[in-house]
Amino acid sequence: MLRRHKTEEPIEPDYPTSRRLIIVDDLPEAGHLLGQLLRRVGYEVAEIGDHPTAINTLLDQPEPVAGVVASFTTAGTSAGLRLVDAFRNHHRQELNTVRVLLISDQPRQQIFCLQAGADAILLRPFSGDELVEATIAMITRPESERVPYRRAMVAQVKQQQTEESDGNLGPRSVAGQFV
Fold it and tell me: pTM for the complete prediction?
């Protein structure tokens, strides 16, 4: 018979274990749909319409929040970048490390988003399964891997953009006409 030995101290994971999320979207209907998708898989979700309210909500929470899903359906990716920047440069330390999944409709801005400190990027259009997978990956990524992950993703996006630009030379002209 095999004996199992208990460890003296429980091993604490290097990532948030909370199932609480904040969704920030300036279109209430879109935020509500994202919230419904994440509630179905067991997350407790607060839906918020702007980044100042998101900051105040995070600071007022008695229990930790695992992360923020920022979409900004109407204002676009630039509003999401402002949110990430507000978190990363806030004078309260607990906001500097908030995990942020940024939903973007502009593939060309992925590098800016990652360099600004977004922990994950999800490009529109996406499925509910992709949203859940990206959220789980963002939350469970160990703290020590967040910056290396962003660097690797920046390199990957740059490589994809280089390959796209090499393969897409734009419209060619033949005898002064575009083909």
Answer: 0.80
Residue 173 has pLDDT above 80, yes or no: no
pLDDT 10s digits, 51-89: 899 999 999 988 889 999 999 877 777 888 889 999 999
Q: Quote the CA–CA distance of 86 and 52 in Å, as a whole number.
A: 9
DSSP string spanning 9-30? Answer: SPPPPSS----EEEEE-SSHHH
Q: Are 25 and 49 in contact (CB under 8 A)?
A: yes
Identify the CATH assignment for 20-178 out of 2.60.320.10, 3.20.110.10, 3.30.1360.120, 3.40.50.2300: 3.40.50.2300
Half-sphere exposure in the Cβ direction for 166 (13 Å, CA): 6
Compute CA distances 83 → 9, 80, 165, 171, whole Å: 38, 5, 30, 37
- 67-70 and 20-24 beta bridge pairing: parallel
Q: Is the pLDDT of residue 7 over 80?
A: no
C-alpha triplet 128, 88, 60: angle, nearest 5°: 75
> What token pair was written down for 143?
């703290």
**Element of type H or E holding 97:** none
Q: How far is the C-alpha of 155 from the C-alpha of 149, rounded, in Å?
A: 10
Q: Is the pLDDT of residue 132 over 90?
A: yes
